[in-house]
Design goal:
Chloramphenicol Acetyltransferase, 2 domains, O-acyltransferase_WSD1_C, transferase, 497 residues, diacylglycerol O-acyltransferase, 7-stranded mixed sheet, 37% helix, O-acyltransferase_WSD1-like
Amino acid sequence: MPGLSIIDLAMFLLETPERPFNIGPLILLDPPARARATFADRLVAAMLRRTPGAPFNYRLRAPLLGVPSLEADPDADPAAHVHRITLQAPGTFAQLSAKVCELHEAPLDRSSLLWDLYVIDGLEDGKIALYGKTHHGIIDGRGFVQAISNWLAVSPGDRSVRAMWEGVPARAAESAVRASVTGRLSGLLSKVRGTATSAVGLYGMLAQQGLKALGVRGVEGMSLPFTGIPRALAGKASSKRSFAYTSLPIREIKAFGKANGATLNDLLLVSLDIALARYLEERSERPGKALVTAMPVALANAGGGNQIAVLQFPLGAPGMPATKRLQAIRAQTEAIKRVVEKSSSDTVMLYTTLVHGLPAMAEKLGLKSGLAVSNLMVSNPFGFPEKRYLMGAAVEMVLPVSVVPAGQLLNVTAVTLDDRLQVGFLAMPEAVPDVDKLARYTAEAFDELIDARPSPAAKHAARKSASRVHEGVSEVVPYTRKSTDSRKRARRTANQI
C-alpha cells in the first residue's frame, strides 16, 4: 500500500473549500485542419483504451481510527473521470480561462480516483483544450511534468495515443526514502534515529533564522517565518480563482543569465518583482519594504510523492533598479540553496509542513486575520525542451494550474515548452484584481531587465546574432530596441488562441 509523506498527508488534512489542493495542466492543441471536426471525440475514445497507473489508480483510504493512506484500485476505470465540454461561440481564451477556474475551484471527490480530465472544444480556430485536475496529495509538480512528458509525443508523426492517467515510473529511491506517515509518527514517539536528527536539524534552522533576525554578522539563513511580510496582495480567503498567463523567450533568458551569472529562476523572480512593484504602485498599495516569496525546492535525494521544501525569502527592496534587484534576488536564492544543501530532506520537509500548516489551521479555525507565509508563491517544475504533439495535433501551450495555499493569495508557476517559458498566474480575484495585467507587466519587466545596462559579458553576448541552436551552441538575437519590439509581438501571438 503506497505511503503518504508528511506533506502529502497535510494536503489532505488541511484542505478546505477555499483551499482545494488541485493541480493540473491546461494544454492547448492545434489539430490538423482536416481532422478538427471529430478530433476531440476520437482523442477521448483513444485515451480511454489506456489503463490507469500509479498514482492515478490510487484511492484515499481514511479509517475512522488511524492515519489515512493510499491504496491502488485494481479495477480503476478512467471512463467516469473523463468529461467533454463545448464552449459557446466565440470560444475565446477568456472563456476557457473562466471555465477552467470554475472546474479548478471544486474539491475532488475523495471516495473515488483523485483526478478528472476535461476535454474542451468550441474554441476559436478549431483548437482543443485539455485540463487535468488532480489532487496534489498524490503527485508533486516534478512528477506531474514527468506524467505529461510520457503523455505527449515528441514527433508529429507519432500518432500513438497515450493518456495522462498512465502514471509515472516509481523512483528507485522511493522504498528506501519515502516512509509512510504511520512510520514517521511511530518514529517520533519512539525517538528512532532519523526523526530525532530531523528535530535537531529543525531547531538548528530556526536558531539560524533567529540569529539573522537579530542582525548577527556572518549568519546566513532564511528570515523567521511569519515576520517581515508586508501587507500586499492580501485579502479574505475565497474559493474563487482567476487565471492569466504570459510567456518569455528561453534563449534570451539563458543568454542573459549566463552573461550575468544568474539562473532562469533568478530572472523569472526579478521580472515578477518589477511587475509587482508596478502593479501595486498603480493601485496605491506598494509596500515600504521588500515583498516575500515562497519557493518550492525539489529535494534531489528524496523519493516519491511530494518530496519538496517550500522556503521563503525577500525579493528586491522598493526603488531598486533592475540590475541591483537581480543581484539582491540572486544572493537570496543562493542562500536558500545552501540552506537546503546543509539540511536533510526530512528536516526541510518537516519545516515546510509546520510553516505552511499553521496558516491552514488558523483558517480552519476561522481566525479572520490569518497568518501570512509570504506575498506569493513562485515555482518552476522543469518542463519540455522540445515541441510536443498528441495524436498528430501540435501542442501550442502547456500551462500549469496550481494551488493557492494558506498564507498566500497568488501562485505563479512556470513550465518550459520548446523555446518559451510559460508563466501561469492563479489568484484569488479579491486580492489580485486584473491578474491578466500582472501577467502582461511581467513580460514587459523582462524587457526592462534585458534593456538595462548589461555587464561587459552581456554586451558581448548581445552582439551575437541568429536564433538557432547548432551543434549545442546557442546564439541570441541582439538586445536592441528592434528585438524588444519583436519579443512583444511574439508575446501577443502567444497570448492569443
